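Bug: token stream looks shifted between consecutive jobs. Job 1:
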Amino acid sequence: MVKLTTDIVERKCSQILTSKSLSKTIKKDELWKLTHLYMNDMFISSIGNITTYRSLKVLYLQNNNISKIKNLHFAYNLTHLYLQHNTITKMENLESLENLQKLYLGHNNIIVVEGLENAKKLQELHIESQKIPLGESLCFEPRSAFILSMCLKVLNISENKITSLRNLIRFQELHTLNAKNNLINNVDDLTATISTLISLKDLSLQGNPVTTSYRYKENLIANSVSLANLDGKIVTDICRNFMKKFKIEKYNQRIKKATKIPLGDDITNSLNLPPAFKKSISRAIFQHGPHLSITINPESLSVESQLHVFPPWKSASGIRSTKDNHITPRPFWNNVIKNKEIHLTRSHANNKAIALPLI
């Protein structure tokens, strides 16, 4: 059981200086200027009073046995906090970390993302691979989720038995999301969430059941605004535009099938008829039903509109002979009347000499 105190910090700093140079010694009066503190792999079980180091910006506490986050109220200048590979069960006592930008909590025992109401500058949250009990999954407390939706840019929630990403709706600044190896299986629910992430560029969902759904990638690409990388594969603007057009076309076809055209409109629209005649046909169909029959009275037809009756070709007058028991029609050229040649003869008057007057 090792507790993080100022003595432990001084001893650690002294070891670091000694490893670099034997002639250098630590000055305790200058320790308050520390900005980076490396206390990883020190078997630390709890955080004690280290309020002396108010200038801390980066604190490394990974690979220890810390079970509770506490005594960090002094670290209002802290921007990076590394607490992965510990035994932390709850996110608490983080209210004073108003300048925190990166928080690493992977490989702990956390079930609820909470206590981040004042972390308005947090840009990266890594909370992957939590030891979650059977039947539970990682979830987000609403107040913390609201704050994170306005500032968080990178989120790693892989291997947390998550079944839905609805907690991430309208995370408007999020551009990198790692949700590998979870239990997400509803493609419609996933698509609805991704469509609200307007800044999302990199999405990783490998190892989820939803990746085996029909046209899983096509649906995500078509509904995303700025997705550039999906499961490690680049998504080009041409691909995104094609998927969006394909989605619109499918939607239009679905709407077209859902809206049925009335019988009268369907028939009359397919005919090239005057408007008045279309209305009369539609009215007759609805009055008489589908067994409507239209009869034509030959007497009412005009001379120009009467039907022409053509006799069978065997009885035509042009046929005049048979050959080998086959009726042969008369050649058409026999009907051609040969014009008699008109021979012009010169008259005797033309042979007479014409007398010209004297000049």
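Job 2, same session, no restart:
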Amino acid sequence: AHVLCSCARNMSGGMFTLCARFARLSDIAAPLKSLSCYASTSKRKEIALPSGYRKTPPFAFFLKENFIKKDGVKVTEAMIELKNRWNALNAIEKKKYFDESDAELKEKKAKFDALDVEEKQRLREESKRNRETRKRRRIRAEKAAKREKSGRPIRPASAYNLYMKEKMDVTSKVPEKIRERFKECAIAWKTLTEKEKQKYIDEAAILAKKFDEERRIWRENNEKHSTKKIFKETID
């Protein structure tokens, strides 16, 4: 018992639990139990709630209460003003909004807990897909911004993409209708004859030729700038 007690201070949570189980079978449980505070413990990671059930920031409640649309004032300017007002509040003044946020989260958790297992799983998977979609969009946007900043020419659309752009004239913003229209256009493209496709093939060829020339010029200029930069750094 004395040996186990002297080692308990350096034990991990799992090792301490194993020793404690052994101790319960003997007469050394008491000294080990008294040293339970020295064992490292890890909180069980709480499973994140899906979209629609997550906590609303306290600032959102402050915003809802104080935002007033004024003529001649841009929304961004109004938001900056409210953000400054929020930052100027002390902890006591902010407590009201933190309490509202906590109370709403409690209600959301209760509603989520009332759902069946299948529905919970479906919502979590849907939320995960949405996060991954947003991440991909963010990465694409960052790449596009970087490419635009560099001045590098953008690869033109293919014949198929030109056809889809022409036929995908959808005014609706409903994702389901857009997907349906996309499928219809994709099937229609496959049914076109080579003669009907030639219009888009020719247009794509012209764009590709223009792109090749622009890319060649860009590469030449970019290599010149890179050479000058390296030469300057070498001299310095």
